[in-house]
């Protein structure tokens, strides 16, 4: 595949406003006693099993991240809460009328280590990609228990995220 066939995005900073169509950003402030994740348990009636795990992405991204597939969760929202310092990449888009990713709505955003995110159910997103160092995340969702909680979509052409050109607001 030639480079000219790939869509290239330059990420911006993750803000509540930029992410609002896809979910919720929760600032994780050290001076707060409690942080609420508004959409963390948004779920359809099929999702009956609360789930919590720790994810530890093993690969730290370079200057370019190549996105080859996206995922979504039809029954429930999915929340990521960073446990260690380190920025991470958030790549999201809406679904088209046929349910596939609508790449015209694709956004790339850089999250700081003091920001958690909740993807609303059915929002297409890329898997966790850490930028500075290996970082642990607590992941919260609700599962149906029927094996249909994850949908994956192989993109027809790669999407390249150019981190070296990013305006992260940092």
From TrEMBL:
<dbReference type="Pfam" id="PF04115">
    <property type="entry name" value="Ureidogly_lyase"/>
</dbReference>
<dbReference type="InterPro" id="IPR024060">
    <property type="entry name" value="Ureidoglycolate_lyase_dom_sf"/>
</dbReference>
<dbReference type="InterPro" id="IPR007247">
    <property type="entry name" value="Ureidogly_lyase"/>
</dbReference>
<keyword id="KW-0456">Lyase</keyword>
<comment type="subunit">
    <text>Homodimer.</text>
</comment>
<protein>
    <submittedName>
        <fullName>Ureidoglycolate lyase</fullName>
    </submittedName>
</protein>
<dbReference type="InterPro" id="IPR047233">
    <property type="entry name" value="UAH_cupin"/>
</dbReference>
<dbReference type="InterPro" id="IPR011051">
    <property type="entry name" value="RmlC_Cupin_sf"/>
</dbReference>
<dbReference type="GO" id="GO:0006144">
    <property type="term" value="P:purine nucleobase metabolic process"/>
</dbReference>
<dbReference type="GO" id="GO:0050385">
    <property type="term" value="F:ureidoglycolate lyase activity"/>
</dbReference>
<dbReference type="GO" id="GO:0004848">
    <property type="term" value="F:ureidoglycolate hydrolase activity"/>
</dbReference>
<keyword id="KW-0659">Purine metabolism</keyword>
<dbReference type="GO" id="GO:0000256">
    <property type="term" value="P:allantoin catabolic process"/>
</dbReference>
């Amino acid at each position: 595949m030639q480079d000219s066939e790939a869509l290239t995005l330059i990420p911006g900073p993750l803000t509540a406003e930029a992410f609002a169509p896809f979910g919720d950003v929760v600032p994780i402030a050290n001076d707060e006693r409690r942080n609420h994740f508004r959409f963390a348990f948004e779920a359809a009636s099929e999702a009956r099993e609360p789930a919590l795990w720790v994810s530890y992405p093993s690969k730290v991204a370079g200057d370019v991240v190549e996105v080859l597939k996206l995922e979504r969760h039809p029954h429930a929202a999915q929340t990521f809460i960073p446990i260690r310092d380190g920025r991470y990449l958030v790549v999201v888009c809406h679904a088209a009328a046929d349910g596939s990713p609508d790449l015209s709505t694709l956004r790339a955003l850089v999250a700081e280590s003091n920001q958690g995110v909740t993807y609303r159910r059915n929002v297409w997103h890329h898997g966790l990609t850490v930028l500075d160092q290996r970082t642990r995340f607590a992941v919260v969702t609700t599962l149906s228990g029927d094996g249909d909680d994850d949908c994956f979509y192989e993109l027809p052409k790669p999407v390249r995220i150019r981190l070296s050109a990013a305006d992260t607001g940092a």
